[in-house]
Each structure stands twice: as structure tokens, then as C-alpha cells.
């Protein structure tokens, strides 16, 4: 065979080989997302390094089927929710999150619980909705009192991350109106957060848009939730502070062949790649009738129905997140008083609404909003305040028929 023929053959075969590799990478990425990490030292050193203090042993434990979590139900003291975490504003003892588990011989930082208070909201036409206002508590504190700000978070769904990543930065910035120059009551601020490579960048991921890249978000998850080090968080003891000496002194899973890390860059990249390739969850064509009401009521001012992207690798073309990825002040009821690199006290990133159709069957038992307090779409709307207060009031003023149309539309996204 001549060298030219060999080259030709290689070129012809290369795309197929690359495709097969990609398929394999996604399988491995999925397995890593579902993998139950174990405490160090274990016989399979590639799977150890959990904790010593941690919230869950796998990504999938908090994002079941790449979906969302829920808060504690409140009627069973054993129930600490699923994918539910108490974030902290950098507590000197507890760090950035309350870890509810410890490996053998290590005390958990505490247990999380919720109590719920019913509150009625009446509409001008007599319709009544019962909201449940949460009080979240941490009991059995292992290291004395918590002194930092406390914020309850439920794991959001993690489908469509590649699509969010592919939205051009300029398109997001074009929607920002931090001074509310157009006077519509809706401002919207772009998050500027530290970029993994240095400098500042647009924040897109997380409930307060505190992460510029999927790599940074996923690295934070390994570190904070599972207690494992990555190239972006090199300490093997996760969120343990200098005061938590037993945790820091415990055996860890960092290994020389992994560059002194528990999760080397290649492993992190496989998890990122798996999430990036999961298609957005809005897999049906939404019902047309309520779309105009969605805009007229003011929902679309934040829940942007569509962006064009050139380079989205799970299909290309437009994406339909129903979010502007900007931060909005949502008023005192939703405020948590915790400042992050992205959003501050009352600010939240507009929650994407794609995929609500997957939840329609569970309406009334859902866990919407950052802490999962809303059991359905209508409850979620009624908690909107701050910049979204006008839209909420317009919704309350709609006729029953129009409200039903709008709700049907939302449940079809
Ligand atoms: C203890 C539960 C828990 C575990 C374990 C967990 N997560 Fe999460 N995840 C959350 C919570 C809570 C949030 C929201 C955080 C916030 O407030 O920004 C989140 C947010 C995310 C987001 C951002 C989604 C968006 O819309 O911007 C991604 C991506 C993500 N997690 C990926 C992962 C990966 C990958 C792992 C495993 C390495 C993981 N998570 C493990 C609870 C968890
Ligand atoms: C000023 C911006 C803004 C406007 C206007 C707005 N929203 Fe939202 N919406 C948000 C933000 C921010 C969140 C996330 C709040 C949180 O997590 O606590 C959210 C969350 C939601 C959720 C919960 C989604 C989930 O997965 O948890 C629903 C449903 C929703 N909005 C529907 C609507 C509807 C319907 C309207 C119009 C009546 C509307 N929103 C108007 C900003 C807005």
C-alpha cells in the first residue's frame, strides 16, 4: 500500500472512529455521573476520596435521571429531601455548605429539616390558592453554631446545559437593562463572575449564575457536595475549614498518577461532556394558544422564549430555554440574603421553563423555585415579587379562561 492510499484510508475511517470514541466518552461520562464514590483508602483507588464530609455519594443521587431534587417534606424527621442543600455565606466553621454526612468516624455537620406554613392568596375573581411558606432548620450541629447567612437550595434539572452554554454572550447582554432605562419595572443584570482561567466572565450556571462554565459548576459540585478535589479545587478535604481538623487530617483519595487530585481534569471533562450532550428537556411543540398571553402578561420579559445559536452541538439552530440567564431581584419573599459571586441577596437567575411538560403529571406535588417551595406552576407565579411583581399582578387579574390558557401553555413547554 502506498503512503498516500494509507493516508486516504485513515482520513475516511477517522470520522467513524471519532464518533465511536464520542459515544464511548458519553457512556463513561454517564457512568461517572451515576458512580457512587467511596471513602479513602479503598481497594479501587480510582473511586475513592469521598468526603470526609459530604452531602451525597453521586451526582445522580441529587439529580435523579438528570432531573431536579425536592426539599424535606416536613412530616418525617428522617427525610432530608433529595438534592437539597443548605448553602452558607462562607461560615468560618462550616464553610460554604452544611454537609449532612461524614465517612466512618466523622460527625456530619448537621441534619436539615423543613416546616411549612399554609398561606392563602385570593384572586380578584374569588379564586383561592394555598401557598406553603417554608422554614428550614439545621439540627444536631456538629461544630457549634452557624454564624453565616443561610440559604436553602434544591438541585435544578441538568438537561440542556450544552444549549445554555451555546447561547452567544452578546445575545444575553443585549437583554440586560440594569438601570431599567425602558421603565418597564424589569431590569435584569448580567452576572460577572471569576472565570476558571482568570479574569471575569459572564455567569450562566447555578441558581445565582455564579459559574461562567460548566467545568466550574461541575467542579464545585465535586468539591462541595461530594468532597472531592479537581484541578479547580485542589484541596482533598472538600468544604472542611481549618477549624475542622479531623476532617483535614483524615486519609484522602488524592493520587500521584492523577496529578495529586481525586478527580483529574480528564474525569471532570467526561462528566461535563455527558451533561453538555443531554438535549434540552422541552421535547414537544408548545401549545400555541397561551403563547401570546405569556408575552402580554410580562413573563417573556425574563423567560426569553428563544435564542439563536450557531454552534450548539446537539442539533444546532435555535434553543428555547424560556430564560434570559440574567439576574433579577425577586423581592423579599424569595430573598435569601446570601451574596454569591453571581447574584446577591434577593437576586436569582431566571429559571428556565423548558421541560415543564415532563412535570405536568405531578402538578401539585412539584418542587419549583430555588428551594422547591412551589408545588405547582401557579404557586410559583404567586411567589414572584420584586421585578416580577407587575407580571404576577397581571396574572392575578386575568380571567379564569385566560389563566387556564396560560397554565396549559406553561405545562406544554
Ligand atoms: C447534594 C446534592 C447535589 C449533588 C451531589 C450534586 N448536585 Fe448539582 N446541584 C445541586 C444544587 C442544590 C444545585 C443548585 C446550586 C445553586 O444554588 O446554584 C446544583 C446545580 C447544578 C448545576 C447547574 C444547573 C443550572 O441550571 O445552572 C449543574 C450543571 C450540576 N449541579 C451538576 C452536578 C454534577 C456534575 C454533580 C456531580 C459531580 C452534581 N451536580 C452533584 C445539588 C447537587
Ligand atoms: C422579573 C423577571 C421575571 C418575570 C417577569 C417572571 N419570572 Fe418567572 N422566574 C423568574 C426567576 C428569577 C425565577 C427563579 C426564582 C427562584 O428560583 O426563586 C422564576 C421562576 C419561575 C418558575 C419556576 C420554574 C422552576 O423550574 O422552578 C415558573 C413556573 C415561572 N417563573 C413562571 C413565570 C410566569 C408564568 C411569569 C409571568 C406571569 C413569570 N414567571 C414572570 C423571573 C421572572
Which key terms come to mind for this protein?
413 residues, alpha+beta, 3-stranded antiparallel sheet, 13 strands, 15% strand, globular, binds heme C, Cytochrome c domain-containing protein, heme, metal-binding
Describe this structure in words.
- With 413 residues, this protein is α+β, with helices and mostly antiparallel strands.
- The chain folds into 2 domains: 33-153 and 200-276, no CATH class; 157-193 and 279-410, no CATH class.
- It is 28% helix and 15% strand.
- The chain has 12 helices and 13 strands.
- The protein has helices at residues 3-34, 59-62, 161-166, 169-173, 214-226, 245-249, 265-277, 291-296, 356-359, 377-383, 389-397, 400-410; strands at 53-54, 84-91, 95-97, 101-102, 111-122, 128-139, 150-154, 192-194, 200-202, 307-309, 317-319, 327-329, 347-349.
- A 3-stranded antiparallel β-sheet has the order 3-2-7, with no helix packed on it. It has a two-stranded antiparallel ribbon with strand order 1-4.
- A hairpin with a 5-residue loop joins strand 8 (192-194) and strand 9.
- Helix 5 crosses helix 7.
- The longest helix is centred in the N-terminal third of the chain and has 32 residues, at 3-34.
- The chain is globular.
- Residues 186, 297-299, 301-303, 328, 330, 334, 348, 350-351, 353, 368-370, 377, 380-381, 384, 387-388, 391, 395, 410 line the site of one heme C.
